[in-house]
Amino acid sequence: MEALKESYKRNNHACFARILHPLHIYSALKDDKTKKYPLDLYTIEFQKRGLPHCHMLLWVSAKDRIKIASDVDNYITAELPDPVNEPDLYNTITTCMIHGPCGPLNQKAACMKEGKCKKHFPKPFLDATFFDTDGYVRYKHSSTAHHTTQFGQIVDNGYVVPYNKRLCSRFRTHINVEYCGWSMLIKYLFKYISKGADCVKCTIQKQGNADVASSSVSTAAHERATNHDCRPINEVHNYLDGRYICPHEAAWRILDFHIHHRYPPVQVLTVHEENMQQLVFNGDSSIPEVLSNSYASTTTLLGWFESSSRDPQGHDLTYLDYPKNYKWDKSKAATWATASQLRSLFCHLLLLCEVSNPFLLWNTACDRMKDDYLHSLSAEVPDKAVTSMAGIVEQQLLHDLDDMLRSAVPSKSMRDFGLPVPSVDVTGVLRNRLLLEEMSYDKERLRKQHSDLLPKLNRHQRLVYNNVISSIENNKQVLIFVYGHGGTGKTFLWTTILSYLRSMGKIALAVAAFGIASLLLPFGTTAHSRFKLPIDLNNKKSCDIKKRTFLGDLLQRTTLILWGEAPMSDRRCFEYLDCSCRDVLDCDKKPFGGISVLLGGDFRQTLPVALIDFVYGDDTLNQSTAVGLFTSLQSMEQVQGQKKEKKTEHTGA
């Protein structure tokens, strides 16, 4: 049972972190109503094999400042307490507040250097406390007081670390209390508590062969073995800048306890000449972006000028006294925090603060909370305008904020605060590059393009257009093959249909049998590339499309597949795509999983190329079972007025 208790003490680091939090010391100090501490500062340091170590500075009010040296004894003691009258305190001091022993009692102590203690112990005996010429306090160490035994040595007051009786009695641990009454000492303490973690330089290498150094080996053999084991050391290659985190520090950070704390906050008041203030900006920002950011050039001095011109009540205050009555607000955290930090702050404000107008807060912070989304989009889809993806980005922002609110305790949502609710259709779009490419078109430009092209359609084109658009708008599947030779306006018709569907936010995939034909389609690609069709059609029975993949999600959202120059493709390409769509969309009863398909081309352009063992025509589109699924075959006629819309005269479109 005792072993289990010891194991619990060693492994329960979270419990130690809560017990040793500095707030407990603050509460103990605030219990003394006669003293006030207007300023405080602390930092937490973690020993490599010990517990959290807190360095704390406290400022007392002017009326409570120590005027004479004898007043120090009321707060700080450097002597052993009376073991009879104060047995608990005596046990704490002898256990936790004794240095060493070192010096004459132990010359091999770790603090000894050149025969002297680095901490200057033992301290000389003094009958009274006084201030020396350098401003340091020399505490009282009586020679006739009590003694104790440490490691078989009799220890006197010269080895006692200064402490406060009330704090040590309450917490029963090591709490060193010192008096600082000199500005140079304050500067040293600030530097000490802000120095950061200690660094160590070490080397990790494999253990050498013990037999090599054996005395039984001859000198020549020993030299050969030694030379054989010598390897060049690459210090640059072996260098590693690492960081050690002990279990207590890990628990401290998991519990989100502060490593540094100061009160009150300090505001630096800048002074500069006109247009000579410092600017802080990201390294990848351009000069126009930096100059256009009004927040980057705003300083406390300019803010003071503006506030004084607007509010006459502060005219009697100097620049130094102005922060006592006014608060400096530089658009809060939005000028320096990252977008992810702003999203976290936004949710914390909604959950923990009583925001009177959440919708106003949303409108103010919305643009700054999605900066990282826009940056990632510009990198993922460089050939498209980021402004065209504003709706997708805003929906993704709403989705992430809603997830953060729902993960809180108690669980909330955007709807609970009267804010916009994320759309289910846009969830996860930013994580799927294929969806991004198909949903980030400039809809306004496409609407204008569609309005220009639609009146130019002839009666045959209009018949196909009306059939396709009406079926899609009525949520009906349409399967059409548009037959026409080169010059009949198929590309013109494809562009009109694609511009309409994409301007409405629908996904229409434009593919072709070969690369040159795909270049004629707006954002077109080859069928093999888009649908992962196998190169060798003899060994596969479907496309390489799986559920819950980027391409699978794209097909689930697809409204129309437009396949140009379809007769140039092997019939198995359509059959494999039909099989894959049925599987991915979980729809076996409808061809292509219910997706509308629009094919086009000219059978007279099909080249009679086939293996000798096969009969010509068996692998063509008109021999495929998929053709029988199409409900309508349309013929086109030669078009003269639309040639200017074509990019070449002999495209086969």
Q: Give the count of structural domains.
A: 4
The CATH architecture of the largest domain: 3-Layer(aba) Sandwich
- What does the largest sheet look like? 6 strands, parallel
Helical fraction equals: 25-40%
The gross shape turns out to be elongated
Poorly predicted spans: 209-226, 612-617, 644-653
Helix count, per DSSP?
A: 23
The pLDDT mean sits at 78
Q: Biggest sheet, strands in spatial order? A: 12-11-13-14-10-15
**The CATH top-level class label of the largest domain:** Alpha Beta
Draw up the topology in text.
Blueprint: H1 2-11, H2 13-19, H3 23-30, E1 39-46, E2 52-59, H4 87-96, E3 112-113, E4 116-117, E5 130-131, E6 137-138, E7 148-150, E8 153-155, H5 165-171, H6 183-193, H7 219-229, H8 235-238, H9 247-254, E9 260-263, H10 287-292, H11 300-310, H12 339-352, H13 358-369, H14 371-380, H15 390-406, H16 433-439, H17 443-453, H18 459-473, E10 479-483, H19 490-503, E11 507-512, H20 515-519, E12 525-526, H21 527-531, H22 550-557, E13 558-564, H23 571-584, E14 596-601, E15 632-635
Parallel strand pairs: 10-14, 10-15, 11-12, 11-13, 13-14
Antiparallel strand pairs: 1-2, 1-9, 3-4, 5-6, 7-8
